[in-house]
Structures are given as C-alpha cells and as structure tokens.
Amino acid sequence: MTTATSPEPKKAPAEPSDALLRQFIGYNMKRAYMQVQDDLAATLAPLGLRIGTYSALAVVVGSPGISQTQLSQVLDIKRSGVVVLVDELEGAGVLERAPVPGDRRAYSLRVTSAGKRLWQKAEAEVRAHEAALFADLAPEDLRQLHDLLARAARSAARHRQEETT
After folding, report:
1. What is the mean pLDDT of residues 16-25?
2. Is the pLDDT of residue 5 over 90?
3. Residue 124 near residue 58 (C-beta atoms within 8 A)
4. CA dist., res. 118 & res. 57, Å (int)
5. Is 109 helix (H, G, I), strand (E, B) or coil?
6. pLDDT-derived band of residue 6, with 50, 70 and 90 as boundaries?
7. Is 7 left (phi over 0), alpha (psi -120 to 50) or beta?
8. Relative to the CA of 131, which of 107, 113, 122, 146 has its CA 20 to 30 Å away?
9. Half-sphere exposure at residue 20, Cβ-oriented, CA atoms within 13 angstroms
C-alpha cells in the first residue's frame, strides 16, 4: 500500500529588494535625484516653471547675452530642446531674444525685468527646498557632497569623452 505524500510547503518569496542595485553609485545617485527632482518640480510649479525652464532662466541670468547654441551646450541638451525652453520663457515675458549683429541666424538671450523678479523668487524657493530636503546633513557634509558630485560629474564626462575619441 502506498501513501500519498503531500508536497512540501513552498517558502514565501523573499520581500522584493533592490539590494543588488544599491551597490552601484549611479543607482544611488539616481534614487537621490528622483527624490530631489519630484520635490523641485512641485516647488517650481506655482511659479510657472519646470526644471528645464528654471535651468535655462538661471543660465541666462548668470550669462546675459548668451546665445541659444551656448545655452544648449551649457545645459547639455539639443538645440531644438533649447528652442522650446526659450519659446516658453519668452512667451511668459521673462526672456527676450535679440539678433546677434553679423549673424542673422543667432540670437542673444536676455532676462526681462519680470524675469529678474521671477528668478529672485525661484532662487529663494529652491534654496528653501534644498534646505528642507537636506536638513539632516551638516554644513560640512553638504560641502563635501557638493564637491564629490562635481568631481564625479567631471570624471564621468572625461571618461565619456575619452571613449568617443
């Protein structure tokens, strides 16, 4: 006579984890950036800005007369993407294009007085946003993080450039 044996109980699957990914710096940077990006987008929205338009506005405030081509290089985005950002900012009355003498295809970019006021509000809001998000870090930790991120970006850019040459 044979007895039926019941199958052994299956173990419950382990709780899903991204532990294998957390060993990578890039993954951890992405996770941190996603948190910052979401909060920054919410901070800028009441001002009528997105992260891209805020970034473009910041560069033009800091570099009056910059060309759209230069802006695309500084922001590391395609020129067509810059045209969209500039159109949006110009439509909002915070940025203006001026022809570049001697080059019919180029425009220099300047912030209007409304753009300067918007920048001052946005800069204050973003400073408050970062202060809140990083409140658990000491000032020295923040300086070190800033330095390490800048060095990491330079290192990655140098590596990418070496691969393409």
Report:
1. 93
2. no
3. no
4. 9
5. strand
6. low
7. beta
8. 113
9. 1
123 in Cβ contact with 43 (< 8 Å): no
CB 97 within 8 A of CB 90: yes
94, two tokens? 């915070």
Q: What is the pLDDT of residues 62-118, one digit of tens each?
A: 999 999 999 999 999 999 999 999 999 999 999 999 988 888 888 899 999 999 999
Sign of CA dihedral 52, 57, 58, 62: positive
Go through the chain and tell me how many residues it has: 165
Distance of CA 134 to the CA centre of its chain: 16
Residue keyed to tokens 């290192």: 155
Nearest partner of 40 among 150, 120, 132, 114, judged by Cα:
132
pLDDT (0 to 100) of residue 139 = 96
In this prediction, residues 126-146 reach a mean pLDDT of 96
Residues ≥6 apart with Cβ < 8 Å to 97: 68, 86, 90, 107, 108, 109
1.10.8.100, 3.40.50.300, 1.10.10.10, 1.10.3720.10: CATH of 38-133: 1.10.10.10
Tokens standing for 26?
Answer: 């890039």
HSE (CB half, 13 Å, CA atoms) of 62?
Answer: 11
